[in-house]
Amino acid sequence: MIWQTKSTSSAETERLGEALGRLLKAPAVLELKSDLGGGKTTFVRGLARGMGSTDIVASPTFTLSKIYKTKSGEIHHFDFYRLDEPGVVADQLSESLADLKAVSVIEWSKIVKDVLPADRITIEFKPVATNTDERQISFSYPDNLAAIVKKLETKWARVQP
Question: Coil, helix or strand for 140?
Answer without folding.
Answer: strand
